[in-house]
Structure formats: structure tokens, C-alpha cells
Amino acid sequence: MDWFGVCVGGSLLAGTIVLAAGYPYGVKEDFKKYMQEERPYRRAAALAFIVIVFGLGGPLWYYSTRTYRAHFDTFPEGQTISLSVQIHLAVTNKTLESELGPLEQIILDHLHDGEVKSPLNIRWNILNEGLRDLRSLEHDRIMSSESLEVYIAVVSPEQWTQFSAINLYLGRGRWAFVQYTSEKEKLVERLHTLIWEVMVDVPHLSAIVKRDMRERMEPWQIAALSPSHQKRLVWDSVPLSMNYIVQVIHVHDNASPDTFRPSNIMEVVGVFAKRLRNVTKIQLSSEHLWDFEISNFFETDVQGRYTLTQEGMERLLKEVDSQLLSVESSLPVLKMIIIEVDVPVVMLDTT
Q1: What pLDDT, on a 0 to 100 scale, did the predictor assign at position 125?
Q2: 175, 152 in Cβ contact below 8 A?
Q3: Are 89 and 200 in the same domain?
Q4: Pair (132, 90) in one structural domain
Q5: The pLDDT value given to residue 91
Q6: 15, part of any domain
Q7: Residue 106 predicted with pLDDT over 80
Q8: How high is the mean pLDDT of the chain?
Q9: Is residue 221 part of a domain?
Q10: TM spans, by residue (predicted)?
Q11: Average pLDDT for 204-232
Q12: How many domains, in total, are found in the chain?
């Protein structure tokens, strides 16, 4: 509020009232006759002054002290957000081609029965691609498209190149691969999980809709989520910032030569930062930690592979933080650790 304007206006108003009331004390008798004659004019002048002050000063005070409010479009309650998803389903073995037809309707029924938060409305459609060559699918790259399309190939166990315990595999291109099983319920569950929770991620979309509608999630609803969704819910609840500091930390092993070029990594991260510059400003910096005994944080599984467990990640993060200088800034800091070793490492996440 403009207190200075209020005080000035109040003083002028008080003075006007005093002038309008006349001079009750210290006035000679000779002037009382003239004062009585001038009193109507004085009152009229005071009234005109009050009208001018409140008539012009009131709107001026309102427009000069009001808070600016951004304009938000309001949408009708019955409006829906329609999302069309095209699912391309194929097989890599001719013996599985006959099972592809009945499988389509079962998957569609499971997808339609799934819970989607209103006003979000997802329309599912499955396109039968038939028999496709596995090698060609692995090299099939993503093409630019304005629609949301999901590409899934069912691979027979004889053609499955991953570990037998791995049922789902996301290729480097646009195709995702599912290991075939003779148990139809398990196969449908694998396909439904891949489409619902990974490729389209309907629970995440529903969480975004609930957040935008300002619906509070109850504790039992959070407990019912899977551990991975609970972890992601924490990140989704973090308020976004207009500026971020990203530190790229290269951890060099004692026994490993320089197998990576840090300049190329920074160039790739720089390209990502340029894509977000219209929304978020990212300040990039890089650090190098030498003479690091990274093997102390690895474990060896039954197949002789080096694995980095959740406990090992926590110990590695503590060790890296102890050797870095703290960033004296109020901006949020994101740290990306790159482990530079000459042996393959498998990262394990229990969630």
C-alpha cells in the first residue's frame, strides 16, 4: 500500500473540513456577516475538492499499487486430453506368427481395463507387423513422427541373445524385444508391463495429471506404488529451477589407461544444454579424479562380471564428495559421475 499517498490525502481532507467549518474562535463580529455569506461557497469548494481527490486519486492509487496477475486460460470440466498410441507388434520366428493374432485382443483388453486418471484419455491401437527379421529390427533406427508409436518384437528363446533371466530388452533403435514363453499369461504380462509401465509409462502420466489438478496422494497410495515409481515420485515432487549447475566428474582408475575422451563427453552434454536453453539455463563444469581404486567398490558375480551394487554406489558417492570442493551457490547442483575403466561394469539397482 502507498502510505505516503494515504497520509497526504488524509491531511488535505482534514484541512478541507476545517476550512468548511469556518472559524469558531478569534473572529471579529464585523467579519461574521461576510463569513456567513461565503460559507456556502466554501462548502461547495470543499465538496468539489473531495470529489476530485477521491474521483481521480482513487483509481490512480488502485492502478499504481495493484499486483499483476498472469492470465490463465480456464478449460471446461468436460474437456478431455486425448492421447492416441499406435502399437506395432511383430515376431521374429515363423512358428510364433499364428499366436500373434489372438494375442492382440488380449493385450487390448488389458490396456483398456487399466486405470487412467481423468481427463486423460488414451486410445490404444495394435498393428500386426507379422514376421520380421531380428537383425534388421536391431538396426532399425527411430524415424521422426508426430504420433506416439511403440514397436515391440516377440523373440523366440532360440534367437534370444540376452541372458535367460532377462525377459525385456530395449534396443538401440526404436524396437523393444520380449522373450517368448509358452505360458500365455506370462507373455501377456510381459507385453503389458513393457507397454504400460516402460514405453508409455501410464502411471507417470497419471501422476502428472494428479499433480496438475492439485490432488494430494494419500500415504497408502504411495505405499501401493512399486519401489521404482516411489523413487521417481520423489524427483517429480522436486520444484523445478530456472538455473542448474551440472558437474561432470571423471573418475579414473589406477589400472586403466585413458579410454575415453572427456572433450567428447562435454560436447554431448553441451548439446543437451543447448536444447534446454529456452527453458532452463545449465552451467557445465568438469572435474577429474585420478589415482582412484575403483575396484574396491565393485563386486564379482557368479559369472565373473564386475557389478556395482547400491551399497557400492553409496560408498563411491561419499568418496567422490569427500574429494570435491563444495559449490558456493544457491543454485541446485547435479553431479554426473563417469567411471573410466577398461572392463565392462554392470550397475545393479534393486528398485
Answers
A1: 93
A2: yes
A3: yes
A4: yes
A5: 92
A6: yes
A7: yes
A8: 81
A9: no
A10: 44-63
A11: 79
A12: 3
Domain with 104, as residue range(s), is: 81-205
- Asked if 127 and 86 touch (Cβ cutoff 8 Å), the reply is yes
3-state secondary structure the chain: CCHHHHHHHHHHHHHHHHHHHCCCCCCCHHHHHHHHHHHHHHHHHHHHHHHHHHHHHHHHHHHHHCCCCCCCCCCCCCCCEEEEEEEEEEECCHHHHHHHHHHHHHHHHHHHHCCCCCCEEEEEEEEEEEECCHHHHHCCCCCCCCCEEEEEEEECCCCCCCCCCCCEEECCCCEEEEECCCCHHHHHHHHHHHHHHHHCCHHHHHHHHHHHCCCCCCHHHHHHCCHHHHHHHHHHCCCCCCEEEEEEEEEEECCCCCCCCHHHHHHHHHHHHHHCCCCCEEEEEEEEEEEECHHHHCEECCCCCEEECHHHHHHHHHHHHHCCCCCCCCCCEEEEEEEECCCCEEECCCC
Which residue matches cell numbers 507387423?
Answer: 129
Do 162 and 271 belong to one domain? no
Is 150 among the domain residues?
yes
Antiparallel, parallel or unpaired: β 148-155 and 120-131: unpaired
State residue 1's pLDDT score: 46
Is 210 part of any domain?
Answer: no
Q: What is the pLDDT of residue 323?
A: 85
**What angle separates helix 184-193 from helix 100-113, to the nearest 10 degrees?**
50
pLDDT, tens digit (0-9, with 9 covering 90-100), for 171-200: 878 899 999 998 989 999 999 999 998 889
Q: What is the pLDDT of residue 2?
A: 54
